[in-house]
Amino acid sequence: MSEGPIPAYVDVRKAFGQMLSLSGSVSLELLPRFRECLASDQARVGVSLSFSIDPITGQRQISGVIDAQVEMTCQRCLQPVEVGLSDPIRLALLVSEDQEAGLEPEWDPWICIEPKLELAELVEEQLILALPIVILHDDEACINKLEYKVVPETVADEKEPSAANPFAVLSGLKAKKAKTESS
Ligand SMILES: [Zn+2]
Q1: Whole-prediction pTM
Q2: Comparing C-alpha atoms, which of 86, 83, 93, 44 is closest to residue 65?
Q3: Quick check: is 3 in a domain?
Q4: How many domains, the chain?
Q5: Is 2 domain-assigned?
Q6: In terms of domains, do 33 and 106 share one?
């Protein structure tokens, strides 16, 4: 993306009054909590935001999309994996939590009592919400790597695994011990 960075903040009254639309990148340095979730600083974070006022309800709405490409740690092989994040933004700007009750379900509340709206903070929250719960490579190399580590060839070749079942042996020992103790 060749677009420059979005501004650090917007003036709330102006942004909604002028129905501002903006798009651009956000530097990881402005997203410290999100950055902590990543495996590296190899990241591209883009966002587009449109400010509007609902003509009927007068509700101030911010809609848009986040679009990011980041590196996270694969939960299987612990190597970096590229993750694409793309999520819509549907926020209603509120001045207090009391207003959340009347909010329609398609809008998420965003509370801002200041005349300035910090954009990085807003984008960071949306990025964190968009993070996948399970992070895994989807290629064979990742799966094979794990099997190589956990299952040595000798065990894989075992014809009768039940004979060497360590849990069976252990429970046998426990039963013996219990008998000895009770007598
Ligand atoms: Zn992996």
Answers
A1: 0.75
A2: 86
A3: no
A4: 2
A5: no
A6: yes
> How far is ligand 1, taken at its centre, from the CA of residue 41, in Å?
18
Ligand 1: centre distance to CA 165 (Å):
29
Residues 133 and 152 in one domain: no
Say whether both 157 and 125 belong to one domain.
Answer: no
Q: Are 58 and 108 within one domain?
A: yes
Interval between CA 147 and ligand 1 midpoint (Å) = 12
Collapse the DSSP code of 2 into the 3-class scheme (helix H, G, I; strand E, B; otherwise coil) and give the result.
Answer: coil
The span from the CA of 129 to the CA of 125, in Å, is: 6
33 CA distance to ligand 1 centroid (A)? 23
CA of 70 to the centre of ligand 1 (A): 15
- Segment 79-132, tens digit of pLDDT: 999 999 999 999 999 998 888 888 889 999 999 999 999 999 999 999 999 999
Copy the structure tokens of residue 64. Answer: 């848009």
Express each pLDDT in 6-59 by its tens digit: 999 999 999 999 999 999 999 999 999 999 999 999 999 999 999 999 999 999
Residue with tokens 């984008």: 123
Residue 89 CA, ligand 1 centroid: distance in Å = 30
Q: Tell me how far apart the alpha carbons of residues 81 and 126 are, in angstroms, rounded to a whole number.
A: 21
Q: Using the mean position of ligand 1's atoms as its centre, give its distance from the Cα of residue 146 in Å.
A: 8
